[in-house]
Specification:
Helix 5 links the parallel strand 4 and strand 5. It is built from twelve helices and seven strands. It is α/β, with parallel strands linked by helices. Strands 3-2-4-5-6 form a five-stranded parallel beta sheet, sandwiched between helices.
Length: 260
């Protein structure tokens, strides 16, 4: 499912130098984070996200995004990389992330080459592009290259949290000004095929995962043992080609699977 933003961003940004744009955006993120601290836990309460990697060459931008995410999502581990090379080195050691936030203009790559490399090397990891400036062409190119969404740095804190929640829920987030969106991708067709390969019992368990149920709750609801549910979950992750429950839910929601 593809959704548009809710108008929290500035569609036409002034022509600032790239570094000035990054620094200004970082200050804006942190200002909104401080103003909206009280509602962060509520907004992130339903989203299942445990590990996030932020890839941006500007420390202030990374700090701003880190602050927003840390306050809005409970018990989340946030790692950072200042370059694509640093990020790849980190991912080669541990790739069990629920989401990657990638700066569009990171210095050691050209435009979408970083996204394409991450999708090629780590295809199961959702990658979201983040940028201070954007146009329709670059957003559509990012989606075609496999991006899970495109978040403007000009969004308010609440808008960034809303965008992340929607992406974790399996939606593809786009700036509100994008207008018409492309048809379902080859990746979505692959997700449908993988879900179709699940047994009826596994589809039922996946439906419970989508609704945010824990293994213990699912076992109680279905009248089976925890061992049985763990076996089903492991099989689901393997068939969907993911490493975590969160990634499985993202894929299921992306094609509108509810288990009903």
């Amino acid at each position: 499912m593809i959704v548009m933003g809710r108008g929290h961003h500035t569609p036409h940004m002034p022509a600032l130098p790239p570094r000035a744009m990054h620094l200004a955006s970082a200050h804006g993120i942190m200002d909104h984070e401080m103003q909206g601290r009280g509602m962060g836990q509520y907004m992130g309460g339903d989203a299942m996200m445990e590990r996030v990697l932020i890839i941006d060459d500007h420390p202030l931008v990374r700090d701003g995004l880190r602050s927003v995410i840390a306050i809005s999502f409970d018990n989340i581990e946030i790692l950072e990389a200042a370059s694509l090379a640093e990020a790849v080195a980190l991912l080669e050691k541990q790739d069990n992330f629920d989401l990657i936030l990638l700066d569009l203009n990171i210095p050691d790559v050209r435009r979408l080459d970083g996204l394409k490399l991450l999708r090629q090397r780590f295809p199961i990891l959702p990658v979201v592009m983040v940028s201070g400036a954007f146009d329709r062409a670059i957003v559509q190119d990012a989606l075609a290259a496999g991006a899970a969404g495109f978040i403007p740095k000009s969004l308010k804190r609440s808008g960034i949290v809303d965008a992340l929640q929607r992406i974790v829920a399996g939606e593809i987030y786009l700036p509100e000004t994008m207008g018409e969106v492309p048809p379902p991708s080859v990746e979505e067709d692959d997700i449908v095929r993988r879900i179709d390969s699940l047994t009826p019992q596994q589809k039922t368990v996946l439906g419970h995962l989508v609704r945010g149920r824990l293994n213990k709750q699912i076992a109680h609801d279905l009248g089976v043992s925890m061992t049985t549910i763990k076996a089903h979950v492991s099989a689901i992750l393997q068939k969907l080609g993911v490493l975590s429950r969160t990634q499985a839910v993202i894929k299921a929601n992306r094609v509108g699977f509810s288990g009903d």
